[in-house]
Amino acid sequence: MLERFSAQARDAVTAAHDQARSAGAGSVTSAHLLAAVVADPRSIACVALAAAGTDPAAVARAARHTDDGIDADALAAVGIDLAAVRAQVEHEFGAGALDHPHARARRRLAFAPDAKKTLELALREAVAGHDRRIDPGHLLLATTRLEHRAPAARVLAACAVDVAAVRTQVERQRAEHPAA
Amino acid sequence: MTTDLLTTAASAEPGDGLRAVRSLHELADRLEGLHVGRARALGWSWQQVADALGVSRQAVHKKYGKRFG
Q: Distance (Å, rounded) from C-alpha B61 to C-alpha A2?
């Protein structure tokens, strides 16, 4: 299936993995995918989200908050400097000591079932749209079709994303920039 | 920190406070694992580890017995 992904979509999948790892998460979730998809402001996903009235940066922020890792922003709000804690712990226990045990045990993190489901739904989006390539727009639309408890679905709900408007905007972008 | 904690706890947005609490739990859990592992490697008994953590020996053994048996 990955051979059908556009270069941008492939980069997003890689970025999702890197993001999960650097957050010390135990697996790559649909929220990591969503955060990666909205990271590039020029991507069709970001343009469509913005046109649908949602700030892509707010989605990226909310996506980071659903991590099973430790949320540095949330800890900063209670006066704890996670970077300082991490530095101290790594000094005592070695690099990566604070990472999720799964992250330390394996070099590559596994994709959680909801993340796999997102990739599968993205393929379906592309097939339904008669698009040869799966791009970040398909990935974004895929997250809107996840069941409501999936991490990415919770992010979209928290950001009050207008799913119908996003779909319309993605389709409009695709019609205006067919090669993208 | 106390003032910050109170501010966050009293925040109009319960999500902020809850996320902080969740992160604290997760952070404490990972620190616990590291320290229990070190104590066991240094020859501490399960009873000593349990006493230091203020929990029962059974509880600590159940949680870490496999990893640091």
A: 44
Nearest CA in chain B to A85: B27
Q: Hey, of A75, A78, A104, which one would you mutate to test binding to chain B, going by the most B CBs within 10 A of its CB?
A: A78
Q: Where are the domains of chain B?
A: 2-68
Q: Measured between CB atoms, does B32 come within 8 Å of chain A?
A: no
Over the stretch A5-48, which tens digit does the pLDDT of each residue have? 999 999 999 999 988 887 778 889 999 999 999 998 888 999 99
Tell me, what DSSP letter sits at residue A24?
T
Buried (b) or exposed (e) across A60-92, using 16+ Cβ within 10 A? bebbbbbbbbbbbebbebbebebeebbeebeee
Q: Which of A70, A89, A97 sits opposite B23 (nearest CB)?
A: A70
Chain A contact present for B15, CB below 8 A:
yes
CB contact under 8 A, A70 and B30: yes
Domains and CATH numbers, chain A: 2-69+108-176 (1.10.1780.10)
pLDDT digits (tens, 9 = 90+) for A61-89: 888 766 566 877 788 889 999 889 989 99
ipTM (interface predicted TM): 0.78
